[in-house]
Please model this.
Amino acid sequence: MRSNACPKCQGSMTQGFVLAETQGMKTVSSWVEGSPVKGWFGVKLGKRVTHEIQSWRCTRCGYLENYAKG
Model:
């Protein structure tokens, strides 16, 4: 279980998410296994493992902590 205290300043952490926007569509950013492979229309994913990113922000210092639970 994660602590609600910031690891940098011990302030309070608030849950949020990292926004991804493509062609007007808004979604949650994902972590992708492996190095990026560039294609003609962006990054190629193939059958790689992806996990949505959960993000926490310190209300005191602004530190961000991200998790990709799977």
